[in-house]
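My main concern about presentation is that the manuscript never shows what a single data entry looks like. For the editor and my fellow referees, an illustration may be useful. For illustration, here is how one protein appears when written out as sequence plus structure tokens:

***
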Amino acid sequence: MNLSKYFLFFLFFIMSCNNVTTTSGTKNLGNDSVMIKLKQLKETELTRIEINPTIYYADTISKGQTIEGKFTITNKGKNPFFIKKIMNVCDCTVSESTKSKTLPNDSCIIRFKIDTENFSDGFNVRVITVMGNFHPFFRVLSVECYVKK
């Protein structure tokens, strides 16, 4: 994808949520105190993760319907995996992890619940950003749906 497509996606994403919170968004991720601490970790403290799925498609829904789902994060590296922060861009999304520390070859679950009352008709996307001791220190998970008119 070229840069202009990323920009349009991000712009659409930000404008599609009525209650965007700046304190938990990904706007200033590089200046985030957790990100600064993660960048100071030694290479020997990092691990490798696999996320399944990275995009959760909720199909066609009615406005006001609650979307609930999960993402599974498997530690494929040699070091324990630590979730340092989970961020939701808008207050319509609530997410949490089943563990803060996941040993090698083990998995944790990120559960989420999204209130779609303020979603617009058509295609909608919400993201959950997970930060931890892996490269590039954060992963963006996507929840997509189509709200019927």
User: Anything to note?
Assistant: Strands lie at 49-52, 55-62, 66-75, 81-88, 93-97, 101-102, 107-115, 122-132, 138-148. Residues 3-15 form the longest helix (13 residues). The domain at 3-148 is CATH 2.60.40.10 (Immunoglobulin-like).
